[in-house]
Design goal:
With about 270 residues, this protein is of the alpha+beta class. The protein contains 7 helices and 8 strands; from the N terminus they run ααβααββαββαβαββ.
Length: about 270
């Protein structure tokens, strides 16, 4: 039997221990890598689930905001803070004539269906012209052009009036449909009022709840014009008329007194 010198034996033992240690380290590293991989996979899955959840919430939220405002907020162009600025806008108001009387006599289910049909059609037309839908107030609709995106004050005003004409045309066919399907005694009509001027637009409210809207005397005048407009008519102010007179045919409606204003206003009825 060959006897191994002590020095060589000690060296072999050290090498053996080193190999065992390296093997153990490799094994531990492999387990750690597997653990880290598992954590990363779980984190990726969780992130995907959260992303899908956020996307679903964002899609729901988009129904409560105009597309332009929604895009501005989610792209980071606009901050969700209390702020405002002066801008030249064209403001639109519309209202269904005598709808309150109908709502008092019609059952809630057909009433809701009819109103939603109307608002869906008007919304589709408004968005096709790039309008910012401010709010629905029952059957009334408030819309403006010029913020958060503008094509220039003349093109904004022209888009608004063209939109109004399309809405009145669509209303005629909708009214015929309603007469047949909702047992209405008379066809429904809408009044539209439009005005252009410098307004304050932005976020108003509290830190807990904000409303993106527009305020100022031009807004009040547009609302008053709507209430004074002929049934199935589009009544515009002299300010709006001056911006679209070379593109849209109008008839002078007359000088009218408007509650809340000291002087009379020259107005025009849009021909269509």
């Amino acid at each position: 039997m060959v006897e191994i010198p002590d020095d060589e034996l000690k060296s072999l033992k050290r090498q053996l221990m080193k190999l065992k240690l390296e093997s153990k380290l490799r094994s531990n590293m492999s387990r750690e890598l597997d653990r880290q991989k598992s954590i990363a996979e779980k984190a990726e899955l969780l992130a995907k689930e959260k992303s899908e959840e956020i996307e679903a919430i964002a899609n729901q939220l988009s129904k409560y905001l105009s597309p332009q405002l929604y895009d501005s907020i989610f792209s980071g162009k606009k901050e969700v803070v209390i702020t405002s600025e002066k801008k030249f806008l064209t403001i639109f108001f519309s209202d269904l004539v005598s709808f309150t009387n109908i709502s008092d006599t019609m059952d809630s289910v057909p009433l809701t269906k009819m109103l939603n049909e109307y608002l869906n059609k008007m919304t589709d037309i408004a968005l096709s012209y790039g309008a910012t839908i401010d709010k629905y107030i029952g059957d009334a609709v408030m819309i403006f052009f010029g913020d958060p995106e503008s094509k220039g004050i003349e093109r904004d005003a022209l888009s608004c009036v063209k939109m109004a004409k399309d809405m009145q045309s669509e209303m005629k066919s909708m009214s015929e449909h309603w007469l047949k399907n909702y047992s209405l005694k008379n066809p429904l009509q809408i009044r539209i009022g439009i005005n252009s001027g410098e307004c304050t637009v932005g976020n108003f409210g509290s830190e807990r709840r904000l409303d993106y809207t527009v305020i100022g005397s031009p807004v009040n005048l547009a609302s008053r014009l709507e209430s004074l407009a002929p049934h199935s008519g589009i009544l515009i102010s002299d300010s709006t008329y001056s911006l679209i007179k070379n593109k849209i045919e109008c008839t002078q409606f007359g000088n009218i007194e408007v509650k809340g204003f000291k002087h009379k206003f020259k107005t025009f009825n849009v021909n269509f």
